[in-house]
Automatic annotation (TrEMBL):
Pfam families: AP_endonuc_2. Residues 45-302 form the Xylose isomerase-like TIM barrel domain. InterPro entries: IolE/XylAMocC-like (IPR050312), Xyl_isomerase-like_sf (IPR036237), Xyl_isomerase-like_TIM-brl (IPR013022). This is Xylose isomerase-like TIM barrel domain-containing protein. It comes from Streptomyces nodosus.
Amino acid sequence: MTGRTTNPGAALPDGILIGNAPVSYGVYGEGAGGPGSSPGALLASMAEAGYQGSELGPPGFFGTPEQTAALFTEHRLAAVGAYIPVHYALDDDVVEHDLARMEQTCRELAACAEAAGTPADLAPLAILADEGSETLLHHPARPWDDRSLALTEAGWERLARLSERAVAMARSYGLRPSFHPHISTFVESPWEVERLLELTEVGLTLDIAHLQLAGGDPVACLRAWRERINHVHVKDVRMAVLAEAKASGRTDFDEWWADVCVPFGAGDVDIDAFLSELLRGGYRGWLLVEQDRAPTPAEEYPEVAAEQAANHAWLAAKVAAHS
């Protein structure tokens, strides 16, 4: 099983799947609690909205590997993959902690794939991402010509070495490795992504909003990196929120970041242009909806679930229109 093959609303072209992630419902980070609803109810909301799969969220959120696989099977959803943060620039003991958590995630994803009989070309994705530093949290979207906070050459070599170690772990569990560039990290802007691609063989998760926030052009970068892209995150953002945060020197990243992310069509990302180029080039795989938000109180959960259902309908209609 690889997820649902039918969706309410617009029909999707063969090979295109739409998923979501717990972060869209306010679940993220170590020690994350429920989104105002149980993990099972979260998956039920996604399935009812027409999503075909979900990323996992933090390790253990859905339970043990066996419990995770059972929940995804119950709701007829595919385990798309999982976001795996690594503090590439911090001490070795911190990195080892990150990699131990990664192994827990790999076990959960592998259990889901085995239970579903997922084919190798749709194997869940181990989505690596740099966790940056406290300093970078306060300096999002750095100018490309200011490399004072960038990794040193030794730092890049360490990132590449650790990434290849993580890639090997992912592959040992039958997973597809990928890397997610992210704002306020050491792999943020297009030149940093280019450096990553030069130094490693890891696939690329193209998050069109993070890329635009960092000053990149999603369509141009898609054309340049097409052969390395094995996963796509689709989100919409308001550039004015980032500009205000930078201008005022706000340091409460988690607070203003939730204000950046908005429902599809309410932000500044030209998703139409991106989808047109993506599908014209023959992309097949997941389109993962993300609308990062702060943790959701129980009384707000129905509204959040309805918003994610609307995001699915919006994206499915756009994909159908560009197919």
